[in-house]
Amino acid sequence: MDPSPDSTPPPPPIQTQTRVPDWETSRTKHPKSKFSNPQTSSINFPKLTALKSHLWTGTYHTYPRRTLTLITITIIITILLALSLGLGIGLSKRKHSSQFLPLPSDKQSFTGDLTYYAPGLGACGVTSTANQDIVSVSHFLFDSVQVGTNPNTNPLCGLVLRAERFDDEEGVDGMRSVDLTVVDRCTGCAPTDLDVSLGVFSQLANPAQGRVTVTWAWLSPTPTPQ
Question: Is the CB of residue 214 less than 8 Å from the CB of residue 113?
């Protein structure tokens, strides 16, 4: 029985050879580097990845914000320290003004340091010399009774006080005293200190000592005529 035409096996495929150009062969042997096209490459570039990370996460904006925050905190701390220092100075001045001061209304004696200076035109508007019995009282005391802005009208100007001191160098006869008229304001004196002319200091102590302890008290409750 003859085989059916449908069962005839297909003829084998024709084997053909395709000549590959030399440039294609060269390309196959030496494939294009993956680094030549970073946009399509799956290679992870550290610098590029880090740059993308910074751009996406905003890390570059974090440093300026942190710096700005530190600067702001520093400024605030500086301001607070300045305010605290100013408040401390203010309270210190207020303490001096509110504490016990040797006012003329107080008849007791006071003890402080005695120094001398070269007098001239004083805060009371009076010009004095080194030979006169004058005194410059503490600015704490002077300012505490000041009324208005003119120091010439200060209630202490022209008042008289008596300063006395025992001079050890003179032995039993070493007690000395001198009456002094207020003509000036001493910015470097504590509330009970006195700053006098060289002539006055010489009556109470040896000028070579420069600074000694003195006891004094008010004599006149009202200013004396000048």
Answer: yes
